[in-house]
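for the recovery benchmark. C-alpha cells below, seq after
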C-alpha cells in the first residue's frame, strides 16, 4: 500500500478509475469476513486492519468504498462483540461511553474529509499506519 501511494504521488502508478461496487463472489466475501471475525475475536481489535487491505487486494474493491464498507461492517461486529464482553464483565462502561462519544464525532469528521484525498494518498496513509502498528507489535518486549 505504501508503494502504491508513493507511485501515485510520483505519477508512475497506473491511473485506475475508482468504481462504486465491490466485485466478487458473495461466498468468498462471507468466508473472508468469517476469517476476519475469528482474528478480531482473538486479537480484540477492530477488523479494519484486515478488511481494508483484503477488500482492496483480494476483491479489487475501490478504496473509498472499501473504507466505508469496513466502517459499516464494524457496527454489527462491535455490537455483538461488545455485548458479549459486557456480559463477561470485561468492559469499563464509563470509559467505553466516553471513547464511543469521541469516536462517533471523529468518524463524522473523517467521513466529511475523506473525499479530499486521492485513493493513492489513502493507501499511503493506511500503509504507513499499518506498518507502524506492525513494527510496534514486533519490537515490543514480551510482558510489557
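predicted aa per position
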Amino acid at each position: 500500500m505504501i508503494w502504491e501511494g508513493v507511485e501515485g504521488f510520483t505519477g508512475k502508478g497506473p491511473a485506475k478509475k475508482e468504481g462504486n461496487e465491490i466485485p466478487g463472489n458473495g461466498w468468498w466475501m462471507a468466508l473472508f469476513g468469517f476469517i476476519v471475525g475469528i482474528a478480531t475475536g482473538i486479537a480484540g481489535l477492530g477488523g479494519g486492519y484486515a478488511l481494508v487491505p483484503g477488500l482492496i487486494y483480494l476483491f479489487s474493491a475501490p478504496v473509498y468504498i472499501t473504507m466505508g464498507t469496513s466502517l459499516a461492517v464494524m457496527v454489527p461486529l462491535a455490537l455483538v462483540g461488545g455485548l458479549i464482553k459486557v456480559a463477561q464483565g470485561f468492559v469499563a462502561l464509563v470509559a467505553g461511553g466516553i471513547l464511543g462519544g469521541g469516536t462517533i464525532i471523529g468518524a463524522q469528521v473523517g467521513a466529511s474529509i475523506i473525499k479530499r484525498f486521492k485513493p493513492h494518498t489513502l493507501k499511503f496513509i493506511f500503509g504507513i499506519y499499518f506498518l507502524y502498528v506492525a513494527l510496534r507489535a514486533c519490537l515490543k518486549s514480551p510482558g510489557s
